Amino acid sequence: MSSNETAADKAGTVHVPDKIITMKENFAYAAGDMASVFYFKVFSSFLMFFYTDIIGIEAAIIGTMLWVTRVFDAFTDPMMGVICDRTDTPEGKFRPWLRWMILPFAVSGVLIFTVPELDDTWTIVYVYATYSLAMLAYTAINIPYGALMGVMTPHSAERTVLSSFRFYGSFSANLVVQATILYMVAGLGGAEDGSYTQQGYILTMSIYGICAGFLFLGTFYGTKERVQPPKGQEMNVKKDLAQLFKNKPWVSLIFVGIGTVMWIAMRDAAQLYYFKYYVVADMESAARFTKLMTWYNVLGSLGTIAGVYFTKHFTDLFRGKKNAFFSLTVLSAILGTGFFLCGPGDILLMFTIGIGLSIITGPLMPLFWSMIADTADYSEWKFGRRFTGLTFSAGTFSMKLGWAVGPALAAYSLSYYGYEDNVLQSARTIEGLRLMMSFFPAALAAIAAVVVLSYGINRKMEVQMEEELLARKEAEGTVES
């Protein structure tokens, strides 16, 4: 044995360097969420508007469709996680799904907007069917994508960086969508007055779908799976689920995710109506609405990207992920109420509040997914079993429930306050729009902030889990460098 060889080397222990992920791999992983957001941002912020103002479906009907289909789809997430955990190919458990599902993902998104001329009943049937299909395709590609982060590196700090890069990609795509969609829909729609048409939406989504396909291929070819389950672990769905619900930090995060996405989704769904009917309030001024809405969204997206950049700084400032998440959520709730104070002409104040909110909320999703990865570590550390796909799928499950309830609440609120499409709104409806942009999401954010206090993993525990798990994996050889 040489002087540099330790007893651990002689025993065959695998040593894992402190830094595994290269900058190139960070960007490759980011490409996957950029691909997802090309569709998901459209679905979350523009689809309800498309259904009500372009196709002419009542807001209450769309509200019911959103929560019924998304709640059903959310329960498919754990099933997909189980399937991923049991996938075994030379390319890994999660990466192959990114390649297999590109075409179904791209096509299903375009079909949502290809609503044929049918009677009211069959139009609703078509909307339910195509939206459900698109959500299933999204599940089949996004669950393995999210879980991939948990097996790319065993280091919690690197996963936080990966999560930040993921949301650089996400919010960059968000920026592109916000900057281009309304202009593309108007430009490709064929209407002389620049108004929005169904044709414009279909062609725009086709372009976004092609871009998403190439980005997912970049993630597939540019990443590597390194972390394996403990040797000898048997795959048992019943045991996995039972143990998952014993993971108290994970349970807390599920409710945190639902609450967080609910308040973000509600405001996202409301803002188009808020600007069209409250701020612009001119049915003939499509160009002004497009310009104002685009600039608001673009500046907000830039603010979000800035917020993601400061994720680690906020984590250090507030001494841990949990504290940072709580503090930023409370600040978001307080600042968001400012929209109620804005008059139709207070454009600068609206933009200032919007940009401030974007900066504050930017770190929330990177923190959430990094915390989800830590709960996968917690399960292995405390119970000796690791099921990354199932753990991450449950995180996506909570996201989808939030996206189901948030826009549905917005749609029901529109109906309750007497909304009618493409006409000047009553004073009561305007009041509802102002509440949907301010106090309603603020109340949901406050609930999410309270729930996150029950998350039991602090900074000290993160370090302890990482050190002990790394020692085990080095001894077992279940992690690659």
TrEMBL record:
Keywords: Membrane, Transmembrane, Transmembrane helix
Similarity comment text for this entry: Belongs to the sodium:galactoside symporter (TC 2.A.2) family.
One Pfam family hit: MFS_2
Signal in keyword set: no
GO function terms (MF aspect): symporter activity
Claim: Nucleotide-binding is one of the keywords in the record: no
Residue spans crossing the bilayer: 57-76, 97-116, 128-153, 165-188, 200-221, 249-266, 293-311, 323-341, 347-369, 390-415, 435-457
A biological-process GO annotation: carbohydrate transport
Entry superkingdom: Bacteria
Protein's recorded name: MFS transporter
GO cellular component terms given for this protein: plasma membrane
